[in-house]
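Lab notebook, design round three. We kept the backbone fixed and only want residue identities now. Task for the bench partner: fill in a sequence for the structure below.
Input structure tokens:
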């Protein structure tokens, strides 16, 4: 009998050991995004943000998501934990609104940094009813309001390491925060894929996968259709700020859009992924070759552009009336849906650019984010 009991105990430990070594885990399949990873450990998820801010070197943040802290191993108890699914969140960027709204969770946003810049209709109604509050901008954040809300998580972004100060202050008040760095992705579909990041907090991975698969398919179909056009119009981007023209680099998000839409970006040969500060004279010289001018700042008319510099009226794109801005869906308070839903739906942006570059619809009536300036 004792021998049988002993064998039973040994078998039990062997079974436990076998289960431990075959512990379930899976990594979220990411096609384009490079700034984060998600590992599903079965009872909890680990999210790693590897590019938290511009020019970050050897910086990685880990966040743990689960329905209960009991699911977290003792060895990881010091990591940032977020209980899921989240019900009440605070966001620091309108792009965060875009992802959350696409998941049908606009109602979960209890506060934003800059209410005026929100476009989502559901959230705008919540703002008007004072259900969603404004917590201001860094460094002058309204911590009193934020702490009173006591959200399940705060979605932050940072241009430099100073954002860690905000994270630490929230942590000391018992409020977890996570870093979102979708703005550092160079590919339009890379930004769009961050919807998988947000879905992890709402336990709705299936919806995010479904949305992204459709976006990916439609974007690539449009991209392939643009290759059929033999002529590539030359493209000028942006508008100067004071004495400099901050031009998108040749490896930037904007440059990739132009390339995918079948355009010839005049600064495509520059290696930068960020903006390049250029003097106005050098830009004017090259801009004389531009067939089309897009993303002209906040300008809503040709007159507004000329008011900045009279020389603009001599540019061929201006004289031909080929100036298009991405502010068709801008609301009265300054919110631009291009920067909100556009991050989730780059296929809509690409469709606009193909129509603009190749004159597929001379009436411009089917443009979604862009408008021809008059």
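Proposed sequence:
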């Amino acid at each position: 009998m004792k021998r049988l009991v002993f064998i039973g105990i040994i078998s039990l430990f062997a079974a436990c050991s076998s289960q431990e070594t075959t512990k379930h885990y899976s990594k979220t399949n990411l096609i384009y995004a490079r700034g984060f990873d998600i590992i599903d450990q079965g009872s909890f998820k680990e999210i790693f943000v590897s590019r938290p801010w511009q020019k970050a070197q050897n910086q990685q943040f880990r966040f743990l998501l689960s329905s209960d802290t009991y699911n977290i191993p003792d060895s990881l108890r010091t990591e940032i934990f977020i209980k899921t699914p989240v019900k009440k969140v605070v966001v620091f960027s309108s792009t965060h609104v875009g992802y959350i709204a696409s998941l049908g969770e606009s109602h979960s946003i209890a506060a934003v940094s800059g209410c005026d810049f929100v476009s989502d209709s559901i959230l705008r109604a919540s703002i008007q009813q004072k259900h969603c509050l404004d917590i201001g901008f860094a460094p002058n954040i309204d911590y009193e309001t934020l702490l009173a809300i006591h959200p399940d998580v705060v979605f932050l972004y940072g241009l430099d390491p100073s954002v860690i100060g905000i994270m630490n202050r929230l942590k000391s008040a018992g409020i977890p925060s996570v870093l979102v760095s979708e703005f550092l992705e160079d590919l339009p579909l890379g930004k769009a894929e961050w919807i998988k990041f947000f879905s992890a907090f709402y336990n709705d991975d299936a919806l995010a996968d479904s949305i992204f698969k459709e976006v990916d398919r439609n974007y690539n179909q449009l991209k392939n259709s643009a290759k059929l056009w033999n002529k590539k119009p030359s493209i000028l981007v942006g508008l100067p700020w004071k004495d400099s023209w901050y031009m998108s680099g040749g490896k930037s998000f904007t440059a990739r859009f132009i390339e995918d839409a079948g355009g010839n970006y005049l600064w495509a040969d520059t290696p930068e992924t960020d903006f390049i500060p250029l003097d106005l004279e050098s830009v004017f010289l090259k801009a004389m070759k531009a067939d089309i001018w897009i993303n002209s700042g906040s300008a809503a008319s040709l007159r507004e552009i000329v008011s900045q510099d009279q020389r603009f009226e001599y540019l061929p794109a201006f004289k031909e009336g080929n100036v298009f801005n991405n502010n068709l869906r801008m609301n009265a308070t300054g919110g631009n849906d291009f920067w909100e839903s556009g991050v989730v739906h780059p296929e809509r942006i690409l469709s606009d650019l193909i129509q603009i570059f190749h004159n597929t619809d001379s009436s411009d009536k089917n443009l979604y984010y862009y408008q021809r300036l008059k």
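Keep this in mind before ordering anything: The chain has two domains: 26-213, 231-372.
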